[in-house]
Design goal:
With 112 residues, the chain is mainly beta. It has a single domain, classed as Jelly Rolls, CATH 2.60.120. The protein contains no helices and 10 strands. β5 and β6 form a beta hairpin. The relative contact order is 0.25.
Length: 112
Amino acid sequence: MTEPSGSPVVHTASAEWKPLPIPGVSVKSLRRDASGHSTSLVRFEPGTRFPAHNHPAGEEVFVVEGDFQVGRHRLTAGDYIYTPPGEKHAASTEGGCLIIVTLPRPVEFLEG
């Protein structure tokens, strides 16, 4: 929906969670443009592992709630991490989490 000011507004309470092909991971898209730049809410169920992947243009993650392991970094609610372009890692959660992810370009999966 676009507000009168022309700025897009996403009412996340009424947006649907869309499951990703990775079991236990679902997403609500906040913004996506033609170049592949995106910002999303991402939910991980407890015990979920996101396979190893590359960030060709970097990544920003803010943990809204729960715990989130990004490579060797363990994050909890309120933590932020920037992944520089070309960095590769897997991600996981023990207790589940909700994160905000901003990607200038989509990730490239390194494992099936």
